[in-house]
Design a protein that fits this description.
19% strand, alpha+beta, five-stranded mixed sheet
Length: 205
């Protein structure tokens, strides 16, 4: 393995295409696992891929090594007053291609496109335990780390909301079934709206 990484493979970065939606989603499922990054696991779903593919195609990129999907990066622009921010929403690299420069190439291409589109400020976030991602962005010049506290509430275990749950169901009824069907159809048709997310990657040597 070490000898293979001595000469880095040729990495091709291009815009995400319709046929990439399912492979990108499933790669994210393998990377954003509940045991490693519970927050990322909860926020990663089909809507993340399909939504940004529809609304930000120029900032939804994949990396290939040969015919294999090596990684992806998903971003968006946020305009506030006189500032335009480039937000790196998701970044993931297949473990088979760690330390091959895939994350670097994806990042460089996305930043170039964001700058061309008017971005003058970059934002990225990740799970605080993802030290590899923090190190990666630190090397890129990102600073001012801020803690982000995520609060959660299990409604089924709270007396205050019991009456509401009994009135509308337990959260696993018809509404969830409809969403599940829409999600599956979205990956095939490429039609849904985006949510926000976070970033994950392993060390790039």
């Amino acid at each position: 393995m070490a000898s293979e990484r001595t000469s880095r493979p040729e990495v091709t970065v291009r815009e995400m295409e319709l046929d990439d939606l399912a492979p990108v989603y499933h790669l994210g499922e393998r990377l954003f696992t509940c045991d490693l990054y519970p927050f990322l696991y909860r926020t990663w779903d089909e809507w993340e891929v399909v939504g940004h593919y529809n609304t930000d195609p120029e900032f939804s990129l994949v990396a290939e090594v040969g015919d294999a999907l090596a990684g992806f990066i998903i971003g968006t622009l946020i305009s506030k007053a006189s500032w335009t921010y480039g937000y790196i929403v998701w970044l993931g690299v297949d473990r088979a291609f760690h330390s091959t420069g895939v994350a670097q190439k994806l990042y460089d291409k996305l930043v170039e496109r964001m700058v061309e589109a008017g971005a003058r400020y970059l934002i990225a976030d990740t799970d605080p335990s993802n030290t590899a991602a923090l190190k990666f962005f630190g090397k890129k010049g990102f600073k001012e780390e801020r803690e982000h506290v995520v609060l959660s509430l299990n409604l089924s275990r709270n007396e205050r909301y019991r009456a509401v749950l009994e009135k509308h169901g337990n959260g696993h009824g018809e509404a969830d079934l409809k969403k599940s069907k829409r999600s599956s159809a979205a990956l095939k048709k490429g039609k849904e709206k985006p949510l926000c997310g976070a970033t994950i990657l392993e060390p790039e040597l």
